[in-house]
Every structure is written in structure tokens, then in C-alpha cells.
Amino acid sequence: MRILVLGGGGREHALCYMLSKSKYLKALYCIPGNGGISKVAHIPPEISLTDFDKIAEFCLKERIDLVIPGPEEPLVKGIRDFLTTRGVRVFGPDRWASQLEGSKAFAKEVMKKAGVLTADFVVFNSYEEARAYVQKKDSPLVVKADGLCAGKGVFVCNSKEEALEALKKIFIERVFGEAGDKVVIEERLEGEEASYIVITDGEHFKALPTSQDHKRLYDQDKGPNTGGMGAYSPAPLITPEIKTQIEENIILPILKTLKEEGHPYLGFLYAGLMISEGKPYVLEFNCRLGDPEAQAILPRLENDLLEVLLSALEGNLKSLTLKEKEKASVCVVMASKGYPEKYVKGLEISGLDEAESLEDIIVFHAGTKKEGNKFYTNGGRVLGVTALGDTIPKAKEKAYKAVSLIHFEGAHYRKDIGDKALKYLG
Ligand code: AMP
Ligand code: GLY
Predict the structure, then answer these.
(1) Which ligand 1 atom lies nearest to the CA of residue 188?
(2) Alpha carbon of 125 to those of 131, 151, 174, 182, 187: distances in Å?
(3) CATH of segment(s) 126-181
(4) What is the pLDDT of residue 365?
(5) Is the beta carbon of 142 within 6 A of some atom in ligand 1?
(6) How many whole angstroms separate alpha carbon 218 and alpha carbon 1?
(7) Which atom of ligand 2 is nearest to the CA of 284?
(8) Residues forming CATH 3.30.470.20 domain(s) in the chain
(9) What gap in Å lies between CA 277 and CA 293, rounded to an integer?
(10) Coil, strand, or helix at residue 287?
(11) How many CB atoms within 10 Å of residue 115?
(12) 211-258, pLDDT tens digit by residue?
């Protein structure tokens, strides 16, 4: 098969890395790709991921059999609908179902309809009404801009003042533009977060290995939120009992509801969960793989990934068995100095070969660029260094050994990826 992956982060490198090993693969392309992806896929001249006409043209010219979008934006803008009518298959949900990620209010309504456990919420279209609501509430609140805000639209508030401030930013200053036309205000939940990602054909699903992201910039979850500073898998927080609850009370009812609405969900479905007093609550749905979760999860799969995706496309997922490696994984993100705010690009990266020559290490590239034989930084999150090991502590040790061999000026990484698992491991 001739495959086109869309995206250029660590998640897309992990996808391309897995696809490049498939016995069904004839050719692999990635747009825009990155320095590391160029080792396993062709990188064509850049096309914007929302220029669907140009992407369609490329697909027809290169006889692409399947497009796999990595990030949410093309999905939420309807790439599946657009390319499907032009005879190109897409592994991902249609525009309507992608609103699960594209609109927080939509996701909440679907959860309500499906009877899925989630924080109590109210949706507001106006500043005045939202403000009046906040002024009357005494419980801790979370204020969320409705639309896509590149991970910045959620305000977990410690006081009424913070909630009012968030409303002002969204409705008055309009820092998120149209994405802030609506606001979801919900109760603040306490607990521990985990990521649960499935591959589904709309009716049946296969759960990928469990994982936990590390969203804050600094150790012990201090500092500002980021796209994710590291992940590990499996997440022992997800016990077999909680797994059953997730599958029976969240995934299946959501799939059933979407199917009944006439939009069976095809693709990766990511549930961001809060485990609170032994019960899983949904914080958010994403219509894609997580980043950096993918870099921790995918290397633990025994299966030929393309075969799994094809069986979902053909509606045969039920008869397929997903096999997880016995090994655990830890992925440490190395970021540019200054990320998630301002940072410089174009710094030389050294030590990649030494790191990759270690056993059980894969260095996934995110913001990198290759020039000649050298790699340079080209984004906020630069690398995701993944190690496999017999246990999470062993994988952690290997990952940090590899990280210590890699250098670029000002490189920042957390030192505690995987530690959250320790309390469950005895
Ligand atoms: P979201 O994009 O909706 O997942 O929100 C981003 C982050 O905000 C989550 O990963 C949580 O850390 C936090 N968050 C979102 N909703 C809630 C909630 N209802 N209670 C507590 N924390 C939340
Ligand atoms: N790592 C969180 C996300 O991909 O949304």
C-alpha cells in the first residue's frame, strides 16, 4: 500500500516508524514530516495540512491508498469527508464525529446522551450569563473555550476571581477568536489523569496500551502546561477493574451513540480521563493519537500497525487480537529552552547516533530539521527519547541514559517521567 501520513511531530514519527515495518507497505510519504521522519518516509514539498485540494491532488498523483492524519486540525476541518468523495481513503473520523475534539460543548452533549461519567457542566454563549453563573458558584470550576485552542483553552481555576479572569480572556479579549464564541464551565474534579486510546471501526474497538502523559513543564507537575513532556506505558493506575469500567461505561456507549447519529467513528479515539475515587471520568476526547503518548504506546505493540488499521477500515476489527509487548516504555521529551513560550530554532543536535545505538532505544524526532548529515532544532518539543525495559523503572533508567548522550544548547527535559507509576508498583 501507498500511505500518506499528515503531521510533523513525534507522534507522526512514531506512526511512520511503525508503518515502515509493515509487510503491506509499498511507499510511505509524510507531510510536512521532520528530520527524523525523513529516515523512514519520503518528504514531499510542503503542503499546508488544511489545503485539502492540494493534498487530494498529491494523493491522486502518487496513487495514495490511505491517508493517516496525525493532528486534529485536518480532521476537525473535514479531511475525511473531502478526500473520501475524491476516492481516497482516510483513517480518521468524519467532520461531524471529529467535533468530539473540535467542540467541548458538542463532546459534553454526546457524553450526556451516552450516559458517560464526566464533570457536571453548563454551556454559555455570553459573557454576562457566564459571569452571573460563576458569581453564584462556590465550588472550584474549570473554564473551557469551546473550540480548538492548541491546548491553551482550558483554565483550571483556584478561585472565583480566576474563573472570572478566564471568562474575560475568552469573551472580552477574545484571545482564542471564534474558538471562544462558546464556553463550557464545569466542576473541577480531583484525582489522577490517564490516557486511554482505542482503534475503532465504529462498532468494535481494540484498546491500545494504557499510558500517562506529563503535561507540566517541570518535575512534580510544576510550571506551565505544555503539549506533554513525556509519557510512559502501561499505566498501572488503570487496574483491570477500571479498564472494564472504561470500556463498558465510556467507549462502547460513545461508539453506540455516534453510530446511532449516523456517524460511526473510524480512527483513533483518545479519552483523557480523571480517575477519581476508583471511577473513570472523561475530561476530554481527542480524535487522534496523543503526543507524546503515541511515542510510548506504539513501540509496545507486537502487531503490524498497518494490518490493524486496515482491519478497522474493512470492519474486521472484531476478529483481530492486539498484542502488547511484555516490556514497559518511558518516553522523555527534550524541549528547546523557553518552550512552551519563545524559543530559538536552528541549534545543532549531537549525540543522536550514540543514543540510538543503545539497546531498546528509539529516538523520535519532533521539532528537528536535517541538513546534510546534521540535525538541527526546529520546534519547541525537539525529541522524544523512548526506551523499552522489563519494568517502568528499568525503562526510565535506559531512557535517561540515552538522553544524557544527546546535546543541544539549552535542552530542557523533566527528570521524573515514569515516577507516578511507582506508587502502584510496590
Ligand atoms: P482538556 O483539554 O479538557 O483535557 O483539559 C486540559 C487539562 O485540564 C486536563 O488534562 C486536566 O488536567 C485539566 N482539566 C480539564 N477538565 C478538568 C476538570 N473538570 N477537573 C479538573 N481538571 C480538569
Ligand atoms: N498529550 C496530550 C494530547 O495529545 O492531547
Answers:
(1) 20
(2) 11, 21, 13, 5, 18
(3) 3.30.1490.20
(4) 98
(5) yes
(6) 42
(7) 5
(8) 192-425
(9) 24
(10) coil
(11) 11
(12) 999 999 999 999 999 999 999 999 999 999 999 999 999 999 999 999
Could you tell me which residues come within 8 angstroms of residue 382 by beta carbon, excluding any fewer than 6 positions away? 334, 335, 336, 349, 365, 366, 367, 368, 408, 411
> Comparing C-alpha atoms, which of 399, 412, 401 is closest to residue 335?
412
Which cell numbers hold the place of 178?
A: 471564534
In the three-class reduction of DSSP (H, G, I as helix; E, B as strand; rest coil), residue 149 is classed as: coil
State how far Cα 72 lies from the chain centre: 9
DSSP letters for 329-357: EEEEEEE-TTTTS------EEB-HHHHHT
Q: Is the pTM of this model over 0.90?
A: yes
Topology at the third CATH level for domain 2-94? Rossmann fold (3.40.50)
The pLDDT assigned to 151 comes to 84
What's the gap in Å between 284 CA and the centre of ligand 1?
Answer: 7
* Cα–Cα distances in angstroms (integers) from residue 84 to residues 7, 64, 121, 280, in the given order: 19, 12, 35, 35
> What residues of the chain score a pLDDT lower than 70?
none
Q: In this structure, what C-alpha cell is assigned to residue 190?
A: 480531583
Given this structure, which CATH class describes domain 192-425? alpha beta
How far away, in angstroms, is 119 Cα from ligand 1 center? Answer: 10
Cα dihedral 102, 59, 371, 337 in deg (nearest 10): 0
Cell of 180: 471562544
Taking the CB of residue 425, how many other CB atoms lie within 10 A of it? 10
Domain with CATH 3.40.50.20 in the chain: 2-94
- Name the pairing type of β-strands 121-124 and 183-187: antiparallel
Q: Ligand 2: which residues within 6 Å by Cβ? A: 213, 228, 286, 290-291, 293
For residues 158, 291, 339, 152, the Cα torsion angle rounded to the nearest 10 degrees is -40
Q: What are the residue ranges of CATH 3.30.1490.20 in the chain? A: 126-181
Helix (H) or strand (E) holding 370: strand 368-371
| CA–CA distance, 284 with 75 (Å, rounded to integer) | 16
- The identity of residue 91, as a single letter, is F
